[in-house]
Write a structure and sequence with these properties.
It is built from 21 helices and twelve strands. Strand 9 and strand 10 form a beta hairpin.
Length: about 475
């Protein structure tokens, strides 16, 4: 794993190391720290989840309990963070040591003196321990950005920043294989379409159950993990503002939107407040922002679109939430998932979202070096008096003036030649500058008919089963 190797490489420094790991809830931040701490002295601490009654003293009490447990000490009480931190450093030795402050935003958000005292502790106490690595991590990425990464208190002191993201398609496949999952590529993609490659979600898969049985247990059973996870995310990460953030992601579940459309839909006045909220969702890993670009010059434009990029959130909003009353009544116990209305179309959108997070596989399958790419993203051409509207699942523009029009299809049955007629319609509508080549590409799962190959319309017909291979 690349991130684990980055941590190991830091050990070559003959001084204490300060590391920040941030990323989505359930993404494996603390697990990464634990893996790195193997064969070292490991001192983990975690903040208390935010509820209204929790104050800074509760956080210090929790720290004291964990400190006593880690060091096998008698019960302790601290009324000040400096006392608590200095008590910890008094028990450090010269052996290789990893200190983890997990969910650090919860530890310090209620005490304005926490960060300054943490900085003094690092500067005056921990510098005496060259074999020590101090790791800050948490799911509230915005707090970490503002209070640690952009803070003058830690300017020039952070040795490594890791933005932990979902596992790649090949890593997900290997993860499931090691758990004993023996489903087909189609089954694997169904699981990933819902979980999005979040390790903790994948770890809930029971290999002795079929894919449908796993998804029904997790997403369509009363009190199933995926039926309650959504509320936990927004409560834990956004505290009392969770309802506002839920409105934004629910809006984006309907499709990509620019900031003006979002503001209008929510009834917001012109201000920087919405931009701040959007940025919080972006750095939390739930939505992505991509800019339009000029095909003629390759330069990014001012117009940008926001997309709900988290597979689990999108699946919950589009398929679990509307069916919660039926789920509560256990109405899905005897149904197969393929019988559910719009299931195949939903899976298609989910897999498309999944593939956009694994663009390196797409570029490799096309024989493209990322350095050759001018711009790439889903592309929407607005209709006007000069051109018709069209949507391209994924458009890649290269320096060689090639435009790869990528179509994603996730179907269990074989794809027929009607896909060619559909793509030709898009190609006809798509307006391009003179001298550019339009190159249609089909990415599929489930096979294509001989007629598609015989007509030789697509530059390449690529089976996304190959992306699950460790060699992909």
């Amino acid at each position: 794993m690349r991130e684990l190797q980055q941590l190991k490489d830091l050990e070559k420094l003959d001084r204490p190391r300060l590391v920040v790991i941030k990323g989505r809830r359930r993404i494996g931040k603390s697990r990464l720290a634990e893996e790195f701490a193997k064969n070292k002295r490991f001192l983990p601490f975690s903040g208390l989840a935010p509820i209204e009654a929790i104050d800074s003293q509760h956080q210090r009490n929790a720290f004291a309990i964990q400190l006593a447990k880690n060091l096998q000490l008698s019960p302790l009480t601290f009324l000040d963070w400096s006392d608590a931190l200095n008590h910890l450093s008094a028990h450090l030795t010269n052996e290789p040591t990893v200190i983890l402050f997990d969910e650090i935003s919860w530890m310090g958000s209620k005490d304005p003196t926490f960060i300054p005292k943490l900085k003094v502790w690092w500067d005056l106490e921990l510098q005496r321990h060259p074999n020590l690595t101090l790791i800050f991590c948490g799911s509230v990425s915005r707090w970490i950005e503002e209070n640690i990464l952009k803070s003058t208190a830690f300017f020039g002191r952070i040795n490594l920043k890791i933005d932990l993201t979902e596992l790649s398609l090949s890593e997900c496949s290997e993860f499931l294989r090691l758990k004993g999952f023996k489903g087909s590529s189609y089954d694997t993609y169904k699981l990933l379409a819902v979980t999005g490659g979040v390790p903790w979600y994948l770890d809930q898969v029971l290999p002795q159950q079929t894919t449908d049985e796993n998804l029904k247990r997790l997403a369509f059973a009363k009190d199933g993990l995926f039926t309650i996870e959504f509320e936990r995310i927004f409560h834990d990460l956004f505290d009392n503002k969770g309802s506002t953030y839920k409105k934004i992601v629910s809006l984006l579940a309907e499709g990509v939107k620019d900031l003006g459309e979002i503001r209008q839909s929510l009834g917001y006045a012109q201000s920087g407040y919405l931009s701040m909220q959007m940025n919080a969702l972006i750095i939390s890993g739930f939505i992505s922002k991509h800019y339009s670009w000029s095909l003629k010059t390759g330069k990014l434009g001012k117009f940008s679109l926001h997309r709900l990029s988290d597979n689990y959130l999108r699946f919950f909003i589009k398929y679990i939430e509307p069916n919660l009353p039926k789920i509560e009544k256990q109405a899905y116990e005897d149904l197969t998932l393929s019988q559910l209305p719009g299931w195949e179309a939903m899976m298609g959108f989910q897999v498309e979202n999944l593939l956009l997070k694994n663009r390196i596989h797409i570029l490799k399958a096309l024989g493209l070096n990322p350095a050759d790419v001018v711009a790439d993203n889903p592309y929407i051409q607005q209709s006007n008096t000069r051109q018709k509207g069209c949507k391209i699942d994924y458009l890649i523009q290269t320096h060689a003036k090639n435009l790869y029009l990528c179509e994603f299809k996730f179907k269990r049955r074989e794809i027929g030649s009607e896909i060619i007629d559909s793509m030709k319609e898009k190609e006809m509508r798509f307006s391009t500058p003179r001298g550019f080549a339009k190159i249609p590409v089909l990415f599929h799962l489930g096979g294509v008919s001989d007629s598609v190959h015989e007509r030789q319309y697509f530059y390449r017909v690529i089976d996304i089963t190959d992306f699950l291979s460790t060699d992909a």
